[in-house]
Amino acid sequence: MEPISASAASKIILAGEHFVVNGCPAIALPLPNCRLSVQISPTTNPPTHPPLIHAALEICQKHLGGPGTSLHLHIHSQIPQAFGMGSSAALSVAIPRAYSQLVQKPLSTSQILKISMEIEQIAHGTASGIDSTTITYEQPLYFLKNQPPQFLQPAPGIALAILSSQTPSKTKQMVNAVQNFRRQHPHTYNQLLQQAKTCVEQTKNALLKGDPNTLAQWTNHNQNLLQQIGVHTPKTQQLIQLALQCGALGAKTSGGGGGGIVLAITSPPKLSHLCQQLQKYHIPILSTLST
After folding, report:
1. What is the pLDDT of residues 105-118, one digit of tens each?
2. Dist CA 134 CA 113 (whole Å)
3. Angle, alpha carbons 153-155-159 (nearest 5°)
4. CA-based nearest residue to 16, from 187, 231, 214
5. Pair 220, 165 in one domain
6. Backbone CA torsion sign across 143, 146, 149, 155
7. 3-class secondary-structure state, position 255
8. Residues 86 and 141 in one domain
9. Strands (E), 148-201
10. CB neighbours of residue 273 within 10 Å
11. How many domains does the chain have?
12. What CATH number corresponds to the domain at position 94?
């Protein structure tokens, strides 16, 4: 039997991260050009799978029957791990996509999301769903905890370069630091939370209008809020400054922080020039995106 292949996109958080746990919406964008692919085939001599893959295959078997863990599985990924780009969520989407083809039991998008969320619960303990939802549907997402997903249709006119800090995100450390800040400075945190909500709404409006200048203005404000709650490092701050010097209209960290990635905002006609300038400083560009 020929191996079965399936893939899933990566994602970025454009606005709202860290505040989302306290009632702030967030906006996530899929990155169709930066993907993880899975190739599976039955085997009578299955390898010992890593724990997450073993659990993912068992979950697929629970929903769909079939061989479960008695599979050979090969993963090819362009998504760096621990950089806030949804590598585990992409894996949790690609595996059931491939598995359902193997057992010839097609799944709806909502069914793939359900299975993905089960796998993500194992990967992260508690998962908000923003990664799995964005990656499963591969659509821009306006996300509010405990509310149905709202998909967005950005207008043409916006481009992003996703830059690597070459240091993995310290998500747990950053989340703990933010919660400590919230406990120690509740009044200040609540003020920043309200500003973050405004920031997300204005970011959403700029996306829907295809307005890179307004988006950049609110991106820079978002970064200022993240700095105030401690979600940055000297390295990411230097990367943001370099992006702005190279012609980005705005820039911010994305995801967990403490490393990971920086988003540089521009317009589609200027994206190539921005990337050329960044490469002069040997800054790795993981992906780009244009609306």
Report:
1. 999 999 999 999 99
2. 10
3. 105
4. 231
5. yes
6. negative
7. coil
8. yes
9. 150-151, 159-164
10. 12
11. 2
12. 3.30.230.10
Residues 169 and 286 in one domain: yes
Is the same domain home to 177 and 263? Answer: yes
Six-digit token pair at 199?
């920031």
- Residue where one domain finishes, among candidates 98, 133, 151: 151
* Average pLDDT over all residues of the chain: 94
Supply the pTM of this predicted model. 0.94
71, 46 contact by CB (below 8 A) = yes
Q: Are residues 207 and 75 in the same domain?
A: no
C-alpha 221/C-alpha 199 separation (Å) is 7
Together in a domain, 128 and 172: no
Read off the pLDDT of residues 204-256 as tens digits, 9 standing for 90 and up.
Answer: 999 999 999 999 999 999 999 999 998 888 999 999 999 999 999 999 999 88
What are the residues whose beta carbons fall under 8 Å from the beta carbon of 75, sequence distance 6 or more?
A: 36, 37, 38, 39, 91
The pLDDT tens digits of the residues spanning 170-207 come to: 777 888 888 899 999 999 999 999 999 999 999 999 99
Contacts of 81 (CB under 8 A, 6+ apart): 87, 88, 168
Q: Produce one character per residue of 223-254: b if its CB has 16 or more CB atoms within 10 Å, e if not.
A: bebbbbbebbbeebbebbebbbebbbbbbbbb
**Residues 144 and 10 placed together within one structural domain of the fold:** yes
User: What is the span of the domain harbouring residue 203?
Assistant: 159-290
Average pLDDT over residues 102-131: 91
143 and 183 in one domain? no
Query: What CATH number does the domain containing 258 carry?
Result: 3.30.70.890
151, 170, 188: which is the final residue of a domain?
A: 151
The span from the CA of 6 to the CA of 97, in Å, is 6
Strand order in the sheet with 261-266: 250-254, 261-266, 159-164, 285-290
Q: With CA atoms as reference, report the closest residue to 189 among 22, 13, 14.
A: 22
Predicted confidence (pLDDT) per residue in 2-28, tens digit: 899 999 999 999 999 888 888 899 999
